[in-house]
Design goal:
heterodimer, A: 12 helices, 10 strands, 22% strand, globular, B: mainly alpha, MetI-like fold, elongated
């Protein structure tokens, strides 16, 4: 356990009738990518809302602490929380199409998100957006930004949401199943994009997913969320040592072993290709 | 969608034609031609005259303009009121939400034909025609908002719990930012309410007028002209007495078409 963890979480949360998360505990180091895996209903979305202090908006309550750089977010006022959301912790939401407001242009989305935390005006925003468009591999022409959300593809919408999350260069990004609404090709592009953002900017990422394959491709450590509790928390290289039935069920659902998947990580494909060919020719 | 423009053009055409007819020299909705009462169609009166010798075409045109203007203004008032009540109820405290919906329910349950009759009979009988017209449409606006407020409330509730609203909060938008985010979507909610209320008010005014409770004579109104149809001997004299009803049906169809196609 490291003392200078960026995020230290210790919480229980639930809605009026039932507890959804019980004594969740995990830490995130600066620059680390933690994958949080769990089947549907394990409490992933509740956890996301708890970390952002948004659970009350959905009628829930949280107890415990969410320490971001030493401050307990759960003790802050709504106003203080507001100044942290989007600026220090950003969210990449689950369903790109419904997360964007269908009535306003993409540019307006960037303007509103910018004005929420920035006093600097249009010119600074224009420059930042230009950079973000390139970084998230989106079209850079002004015409694209004039479009409404329904006029772009789902993959583009997810990239727009990634660009919006990066806007204020937050210390921590929470990605809530960012690939679940996408086709396999776009999925792997988004995972590659997130990985390169982590490698080039040292972006700290909490990656929440039910898809263990993308987690293995992307994360340094994996935590398994099962029925509202974290039952496993291992470096991705040691997934083979997982013992909890829920973790084993997830591992068993993989088409190949986690070691094989790990071998194809990063530039591993290029590195692994000769080995694979060797193996096939043997 | 394909019918949107033809309908708008037809309505605009009717509006222009009515304006031209009303502003022609010698045309006056109250002018009486005492030599030709209940006359059939002729060169000087293309749609005949009523029992008092007033040109029917001019009166129908004036009634069309009056009822359209009155209904549009009343509908705008009612939509603004509904927008205020609906959004406050949706975005305010939960108790405010249900209490305003109870008020709406009570309003909707009121026997409002009787209420209109009470309000109308409370007015002095000597109320000037212009005043009676103003009051008729104001009363319609005052009683019409709860149905729209309900629709706006439910739409706004959906907006409030939408993913993008939660995401806007996650992005740190303040209250003003969120309001700016919501307004364009509210607009999508309000325009149909506004459009669908217009034909409802045209119809309501015609009903009231047919009971003799609407716009006062000599101002022409749909209702006042439908009143003529009570008089069966007159129906035998000329078929042109059906002209206002026929045009009313066409106008209502067009107005509802606008609301549906928008």
């Amino acid at each position: 356990m490291n003392d200078d963890a960026l995020l230290r979480v210790h919480l229980s949360a639930g809605y009026s009738t039932r507890a959804t998360l019980s004594r969740i505990h995990f830490e995130l180091q600066q620059g680390e990518v933690l994958g949080l895996v769990g089947s549907s209903g394990a409490g992933k979305s509740t956890l996301v809302l708890s970390l952002l202090g948004l659970l009350p908006w959905r009628g829930g309550r949280v107890t415990g602490e969410v320490l971001l750089g030493g401050r307990n977010l759960l003790e802050l006022s709504e106003k203080q929380l507001r100044s942290i959301r989007g600026r220090e912790i950003a969210l990449i939401p689950q369903s790109p199409m419904t997360a964007l407001n269908a009535s306003i242009s993409l540019r307006r989305h960037f303007e509103e998100a910018w004005n929420a935390h920035e006093k600097r005006g249009r010119a600074a925003l224009e420059e930042r957006v230009r950079g973000l468009m390139a970084e998230s591999q989106l079209p850079s022409d002004p015409e694209f930004l004039r479009r409404r959300p329904r006029e772009i593809s789902v993959g583009q919408a997810q990239r727009v949401l990634i660009a919006l999350a990066l806007l204020h260069r937050p210390a921590l990004i929470i990605a809530d199943e960012p690939t679940s609404a996408l086709d396999p090709v776009t999925q792997s592009q988004i995972v590659t994009l997130l990985r390169s953002l982590n490698r080039t900017h040292g972006m700290t990422l909490l990656y929440i997913s039910h898809d263990l394959i993308s987690v293995i491709q992307l994360c340094d450590r994996v935590a398994v969320l099962h029925q509202g509790a974290i039952v496993e928390n291992l470096p991705v290289g040691q997934l083979g040592e997982a013992r909890h039935p829920a973790s084993l069920a997830l591992l068993n659902a993989l088409p190949v072993s986690p070691e094989t998947l790990l071998r194809f990580r990063d530039n591993a494909v290029a590195d692994a290709l000769p080995q694979t060919l060797d193996y096939l020719h043997r | 969608m394909r019918l949107r423009y033809p309908i708008l053009w037809l309505l605009l055409g009717l509006f222009v034609a009515a304006s031209v007819i009303v502003s022609m020299p010698g045309a006056g909705y109250a002018r009486q031609d005492r030599d030709a009462t209940l006359a059939p169609a002729s060169a000087s009166h293309p749609a005949g005259t009523d029992a008092l010798g007033r040109d029917r075409l001019v009166r129908v045109a004036a009634a069309f303009l009056l009822s359209l203007a009155g209904s549009v203004i009343a509908s705008a008032l009612t939509t603004v009121a509904a927008a205020g009540v609906g959004t406050l109820a949706a975005f305010g405290r939960a108790s405010m939400g249900w209490s305003s919906m109870v008020v709406c329910d009570v309003f909707l349950a009121l026997p409002w034909m009787f209420l209109l009759m009470m309000v109308r009979s409370a007015l002095p009988l000597t109320a000037s025609p212009a005043r009676s017209a103003t009051i008729t449409f104001l009363v319609l606006a005052a009683l019409g908002w709860p149905a729209s407020a309900r629709a706006v409330y439910h739409g706004a509730l959906q907006l409030k719990s939408s993913d993008w609203m939660l995401y806007a909060r996650a992005a740190g938008l303040d209250r003003a930012g969120i309001v700016r985010h919501v307004i364009p979507s509210l607009f999508h909610l309000l325009v149909p309410q506004f459009l669908i209320t217009i034909p409802a008010f045209v119809m309501a005014e015609a009903n009231l007028g047919a009971l003799g409770l609407g716009v006062g004579e000599p101002l022409p109104s749909w209702g006042g002209m439908l009143f003529e149809l009570n008089n069966s001997p007159m129906l035998m004299q000329t078929r042109w007495v059906y002209f206002p009803v026929a045009l009313l049906v066409v106008v209502l169809l067009l107005l509802e078409g606008v609301a549906v196609e928008a």
